What we know:
single chain; five-stranded parallel β-sheet
Amino acid sequence: MASGRHVRIMIAKLGLDGHDRGAKVLASLLRAEGYEVIYLGLYNTPEMLIQSAIQEDVDMVGISFHSGEHLTLTPLVMQELHKQEADDLPVIIGGIIPPEDEEKLLEMGVSRVFRGSLAREVIEYLDDYFSTKGP
């Protein structure tokens, strides 16, 4: 990790999406890079995700979507962040995201969308993000 700081990232799957291999692999690679990763697992609701993120005092939330629910569930995540007065908690999204949905997600307040990205791209983004903004 470029910044050398202790950074906590929560990775989760929302809704009925049961495809978690990519999220688990990314979590493992991020740990190897020095990030502390809390993997919330499958079948979470937006409320569960944000409550857990606040309780765990994470620096960022990462959500993996492979079910096509990203345009339905992401607004609920962002609403829950606002409801819990945690609007400053950055959210990144990855998985199977159609190109035409990326701008919609960014307009909702998502910090970054990774569509079929290599893990190295995610790690470089996180290293850069936390080296300039800090945890």
